[in-house]
Amino acid sequence: MFYSFYINLDAVFNDSVVMSIPNRMVTMLASTEYQPVVESNFNLKLNAIMVLAGTIPGADCKTLGYRLGTMVRFIFGVRYES
């Protein structure tokens, strides 16, 4: 039972799609050429981000993680390929 947590964690760290998100975030924050892209993404999704931020008070751990993850995806333009 104790090892099952680490097996799932290993699957997350070995998933190239999931691990591309932090790499993309660091790249976009470090480079000034991506600043207009981040600003544009923020302005395009401003209403959705505000609704998610407004519903954070009273959220449990799972829904808080969902809201923060979704806001990060909106701001940095992360899309999952189908």
Features:
5 helices; 82 residues; mainly alpha
Biggest β-sheet, characterized?
Answer: none
* Alpha-beta content class: mainly alpha
Number of helices: 5
* Helix and strand pattern: HHHHH
Low-pLDDT runs: none
Helical amount: over 70%
The value of Rg in angstroms is: 15 Å
Number of domains: 1
Terminal CA distance reads 32 Å
Percentage of β-strand residues = under 5%
Based on Cα principal axes, name the global outline: flat
Mean pLDDT: 85
The beta-strand count equals 0
Short description:
By secondary structure, this protein is mainly α.
SSE blueprint and pairings:
Elements: H1 2-13, H2 16-30, H3 35-44, H4 46-54, H5 61-76
Structure write-up:
- The protein is mostly helical.
- It has one domain (2-76).
- Helices cover 76% and strands 0% of the residues.
- The chain has helices at 2-13, 16-30, 35-44, 46-54, 61-76.
- The protein is flat and about 45 Å long.
- It starts with a helix and ends in a 6-residue tail after the last helix.
